[in-house]
Amino acid sequence: MVEAGAWWTLLAAPALLLGLAVLAVTTDAALTARDAGRPVTVSAAMRPLLAVPRALVAQPRRMPAPDRVLWRAGVVSVPVAAVLSTLVIPFGNVAVADLSVGLVWFNAMEVLTWAGLWLAGWGPNAAFSLVGGYRFLAQGLAYELPLMFALISTATGAQSLRVGDIAAAQDGLWYAVWMPVAFVVYLAGVLAFSFLGPFAYPVGQDIAGGVLSETSGVDRLMLQAGRWLWLAAGAAMAVPLFLGGGAGPVLPAWAWSLIKTLLVLAVLVAAVRRLPVIRADRYVEFAWVVLIPLTIVQTLVPALVGLNR
Amino acid sequence: MGTTAAVLLWALGVLALVGGVLVFTLNSMARVTFALLGSLVCVGGVVTVLGLPYLGVVILLMMVMEMVIMAVFMIAYMMNPAGLMPMSMLHNKRGALAVSGVVFAVLTTAVFVVPWPDRPRVRPVDTTVQVGMSLMGDQMLTMVTLGFVLLATMVGATVLATHRGRYDRFGDDLDQRPAHDPAGGGVGR
Questions:
Q1: What is the pLDDT of residue B149?
Q2: At residue A54, does pLDDT exceed 90?
Q3: Which chain B residues are Cβ-neighbours of A112 within 8 angstroms?
Q4: Which residues are within 8 A (CB) of B94 and not within 5 positions of it... i.e. 6 or more apart?
Q5: Residue B189 pLDDT > 80, yes or no?
């Protein structure tokens, strides 16, 4: 049974999330080095982390007439929302706050990224970054509804919005096994709200980096960190939602949570590297014509099972 | 109600009011939209503190999406390009003042006229279930009717707004594949 953690979990959860995000980034860098034929060394893996001190001392880029307040608000809200989403994710048998509406909380925090990225695009008063912000909204309209139905499937199966109850309800059979559509759509959603890999459209190369194009220094660091923090948070949330939480033989619950999270994170990093960028207008049609009907039918399955019980 | 809840309630209430005032004093469409969003998020917080966490968090969830989409449309259809020129949010000042004054008076009167229960009753364990039961239990017919009306409105509005029918897309014999669309879709219809 999941219980609320002591006060120090409030600090431990963001630290753990940061650790997972750094691990994802370094793995990605190591794989890049391997693909490029360079030696896979510790320094090759650590290379992206050099951007952190560089960003901290970088001279900020100034634009004419930026909306500084909204720009800052947007840039900060992306990583902050990622960290806040982890409040309800149980690690083993402990969550920072075991809210009765934890699933909705996670969803709400993820939607905050919509506002954050649009503001990050609007703030600098530049065309390409604004196009990037609009692109994220178009992408959001495509990924959000299937993602919501995927989340609703798990809540319907457990008949609870509490994340701990959802993990506990999978005693014996994981939701990933009998709700495969919801699981895949959820993983795609994680990539979409991290705007990484196939969903890197808002920061596309064709618009000079989109929402990232005018940011520099700490601002850029915040947005980049926010992406990988979201990827890690999404991987961690997949475990209680679809992979039975901390349940497993021999090892303690926290170890199983960690192992499963790392596995999901590895799958996501591989997907980020393998898949091409999808244009939002193409994904919108696919999402509305194919994914929404599929996920609605998927939601019907646990509803019928629940009625039969 | 505990002290923490009371303090939170007052803080969120004041912040919601400040956001509401900012909506009419700021002169940038983007800032106005996000001031309104801030205000509504505080309202969501108030609802949560009052013991309805589901409704509170859903208000936060829906309002963020809604306000961001609204910002896009408001800025897209502004009189000046991109809404970058400073502008006032006040229109029809006298009429608006009259309407808001009457609404405020009615709501304030209602606060004093409504027979509130003397003693606080025992709060149910899970208010989310209570909300669900009262919406989908007694009011099932209302909700189903409402759902169909809303869906019909959305479909109807989209059909009226689109200027391309199926004959434009699929040709006179409806056999043109893929469809002749100005923008290609993802599933090749």
A1: 96
A2: no
A3: 64
A4: none
A5: no
* Predicted confidence band of residue B1 (pLDDT cuts 50, 70, 90): low
- Per CB-CB distance under 8 Å, the chain A contacts of B179 are none
In angstroms, the CA A28 to CA A5 distance is 32
User: CB-based contacts of B10: which residues, under 8 Å, 6+ apart?
Assistant: none
A261-290, pLDDT tens digit by residue? 999 999 999 999 999 998 888 888 889 889
Which token pair is B51?
């013991």
Chain B residues closer than 8 Å to A287 by CB: 186
Q: What is the pLDDT of residues A232-243, one digit of tens each?
A: 999 999 999 998
Residue written as token pair 């013991």: B51
**Stated length of chain B:** 189
How does strand A94-95 pair with strand A3-4? parallel
Question: Per DSSP, what are the bridge partners of residue A95?
Answer: A4
Q: Which of A298, A252, A286 is nearest to A153 (CA)?
A: A298
- pLDDT tens digits, residue range A156-214? 988 888 898 888 888 878 888 889 999 999 999 999 999 998 999 888 888 888 888 88
Name which of A114, A125, A134 is nearest B64 (Cβ-Cβ). A114
Q: What is the DSSP string of A223-290?
A: HHHHHHHHHHHHHHHHHHHHS-TT--SSS-HHHHHHHHHHHHHHHHHHHHHHSPPPPHHHHHHHIIII
B102/chain A closest Cα distance in angstroms: 34
B97-125 tens-digit pLDDT: 999 999 999 999 999 999 888 777 777 77
Helix/strand/coil for A7:
coil
Contact A185, A147 (CB under 8 A): yes
Question: Which residue in chain A has the smallest CA separation from B51?
Answer: A100
Question: How many other CB atoms are there within 10 angstroms of residue A136's CB atom?
Answer: 27
